[in-house]
């Protein structure tokens, strides 16, 4: 079973966790094993443990960001050694572009990166889709190791085969404009609403668990509406209704109270598209939130959750 090593900056730990979650099925199926420095036990020598995995693991993921490139340890101790093994056919290195940075001139710039065309994961409207590309790339390489039946073949043979296959040299300048129809936008909105609903339900449960004196509730009214409410020592502290439709028809609205009405909102997300992806964009109606940036499902959920929890955090 090939082992996957994460080379990353701790500034990107949250993104690393999300990628590891996408690899969970591969681990369950016994296709890969995964290791990173958070697995180092108490009393173990940090540098020695990392060096051991850089020198022995068959698949090495470089989680690329400006912080990764700025880290002397990531760059000199991990990345350069990993590329030496890659060039020798002893391992397969896969650059994973997390955040926008000037990575093409780096020593690994010659390799095909994921997601496709080296687009940073954080620029995808749907980050899960971007991380799924990473999982598929890992599966493709790992299955090449798993398919070796002859005892005469070594990890070097498989690594070289992988380099000639999934990671063969080619241009990364392959992006073409995409178009999205009304059905695509409706499905994006519906899936986004379902993500928001799950996000709020899970966050409400954790909010109550972590904070004594806070009781929070979540109610899914129907397929198009949910209500969240929080109490501090039994007194109402914050509430909201999130619903699809309303006055604009094609958005997801937030109203800072519990209601069955759909004719007003404090904030609204509309489905927009560029030449590559669908995304949410807020109206910027909430005070201090005038920046109409492109939002993924997660970004949209965090925006609405921040609006919900701020009264609690400010003690209102």
UniProtKB/TrEMBL annotation:
PROSITE patterns: TIR (PS50104)
Signal peptide location: none
Any Gene Ontology biological process: signal transduction
Keyword Magnesium: no
Keywords annotated in UniProt: Receptor
Residue ranges occupied by any TIR domain in the UniProt entry: 1-132
Record-linked Pfam families: TIR_2 (PF13676)
The protein, known as: Toll/interleukin-1 receptor domain-containing protein
Organism name: Rhodopseudomonas palustris (strain ATCC BAA-98 / CGA009)
Origin organism lineage: Bacteria, Pseudomonadati, Pseudomonadota, Alphaproteobacteria, Hyphomicrobiales
